[in-house]
Design a protein that fits this description.
With 388 residues, this protein is α/β, with parallel strands linked by helices. The chain has a domain of 146 residues: 3-Layer(aba) Sandwich (Rossmann fold). The chain is built from 14 helices and eight strands. Strand 5, helix 12 and strand 6 form a beta-alpha-beta unit. The protein is elongated. It binds guanosine-5'-diphosphate and magnesium ion (MG). The site of guanosine-5'-diphosphate has 20 residues, from helix 8.
Amino acid sequence: MHSAQIILLVVVLALIVGGVVLVGTRSRRRAAAPPAPEPLSASRAPAVPAPPDEEAVPVPSKGGLITGPEPAPEKLDLGAEEEIAPEPPASIQEGLRQSRRPFAAALQQMFKRNAIEESFWGEVEDSLILSDVGLDQATRIVDEAKEKVRREHVTRPEAALGAIRDAMLEALSHSDRSLAIDGERPVVWLFVGVNGVGKTTTIGKVAHQLSADGKSVLLAAADTFRAAAADQLSLWAERSDAEVVRGAAGGDPAAVLFDAISSARAKGTDLVLGDTAGRLHNKFNLIEELKKIYRTVEKAQGTLGEVLLVLDATVGQNGLAQAKVFSEAVGVTGVVLTKLDGSAKGGIAFAIEETFKIPVKLVGVGERIGDLIPFDPKAYVESLTALD
Ligand SMILES: Nc1nc2c(ncn2[C@@H]2O[C@H](COP(=O)(O)OP(=O)(O)O)[C@@H](O)[C@H]2O)c(=O)[nH]1
Ligand SMILES: [Mg+2]
């Protein structure tokens, strides 16, 4: 063998050995490497596996529908059981603890002045708008308070607070907020609204309160669009001592409601609470489905008591525009304003009544079963304007 050949052989051997060592090190490294972190979404995975048929339901592409933000992952875990244990009664003051701050804080600043000037009113109006009260209502409240202050020759800013409170209360004082509970059995309440606003949770809370008041309640799982929705409702039924009627996932929601009302009629149940889908393949389907569900109440010989539009206080005024389709599809009798505890602004009840001309009847102030209270305008206005 020539020396050149020997050198070549040595080089080739060296390359082969080096390669093997490198591959070995790599694979050892791979084995030793810590597992890749779970994607963030995994930690928020639903408490139960996603229903198998969820894939089968075509999910509309972005913007194709009337929905709010992408729905949160299905959450069947309704909270630890111990949370149901004795809990302090929910109150609007407690619920608005977070949201009253901006408006009250702005008022507090304004009241540091010596006299009421034109700019004072401009600032009140601005802070009302920033608190989600809505332009029209803010203007009306300020005009009215200003007029009252002028009539009464008030000059000190603190004295204007009463006028502002009166004007705010006046804006909310023309509604009948009573709930139709009595009537020929079964009285039916339907809950409509965008996905994720809190329909199913509200139904659970309402069922709990009605049951506690001695009423017999049956829940109709007419949101068949999301398979897990019926499970979620069944859990609430268990917790609130109510019955539940459910159909096949993806089945006809109106048929579920029909069965529920028929069953309630047979048993003499006082109330049927109907859950509905907040999202369908497209806007047309959603409206048609809602109308069909609405007509079913009569067809099944139930007494339509309430059609409650559920609105999420945290989505602000854009959410109201998206929810309008529901009030246009069916005759809504009242609004349930949920998540007021999570709203950083709190004044949305004014804008809702202005936009929909429908009274806010109930307010959700938390996720616990007792966190639903009747809407009391006086307590609401006092909470929004409470100076610390
Ligand atoms: N903080 C708070 N969360 C709420 C309230 N009402 C509902 N939620 C939460 O909102 C989420 C969506 O509720 P869900 O009832 O499933 O909405 P649906 O899609 O309209 O039926 C859940 O995590 C609920 O616990 C409320 O008043 N306050
Ligand atoms: Mg639901």
